[in-house]
Amino acid sequence: MRFILIPGLWLAADSWGGVPDLLRKAGHEAHALTLPGLESRDAGRAGLGLDDHLGAVLAAVEEDPEPAVVVGHSAAATLAHLAADAWPDSVARTVMIGGMPAAEGSPFLEGFAADGDDVPFPGWPAFEPEDVRDLDDEARARLEAIMRPSPAGVLETPVTYRDARRHQVRVTLVCPEFTVEDARQWMAAGFMPELAAGDDVELVDIDSGHWPQVTRPAELSAILAAAGSR
């Protein structure tokens, strides 16, 4: 199976660490993306919007006629879902790690302050204790060293879906800092409308904080490989 790995905010391809190699050792293809504006801390981010990031994901999907498993970490869950919406016949499954798709018409992501064209990493105190519970000082330093601002224009863009067939694409939601039961309750309460509308949504626990690709790469890779094999 072919995996496309989309990093979350402030991160690029290198944030996936050993996950791509572990997937390759399991017999899969793996392509970790660096989205526009995330190439470096000094990269140009002016004028970038959600279509630029989605275009990069769709370009990776298009590289091979074989349907892909599109994996989105955190806010990139919305990008994975948008890829399924754009090309439902080319996405075999989406995997969302610690995130869920934004609702129709809402901004890609709210809650982080922009500084001009940039949305800088806000620092660890901005996160809940469950998010960072398995990140020691060394792991936090490693993550901060590879972080760079995300484009403000991407976060501010309202999300639009176009094809109801996106709900037929299989979904695996990996639950790190929250539990499977939490996710079920949120779907029932209407907080995750895009997932609640899905025909086949699998919920999987992983014992980690918000960045299991950093703290639990082997376990996360096994979950991804199992999802792809289904």
Automatic annotation (TrEMBL):
Q: SUPFAM superfamilies, alphabetically? A: alpha/beta-Hydrolases (SSF53474)
Is Signal one of the keywords?
Answer: no
Where in this chain does the record put each AB hydrolase-1 domain?
A: 4-222
Q: What is this protein called?
A: Alpha/beta hydrolase
**Whose protein is this, by species?**
Nesterenkonia aethiopica
- Which UniProt keywords are present, listed alphabetically? Hydrolase
| A GO molecular-function annotation | hydrolase activity
Q: Which Pfam families match?
A: Abhydrolase_6
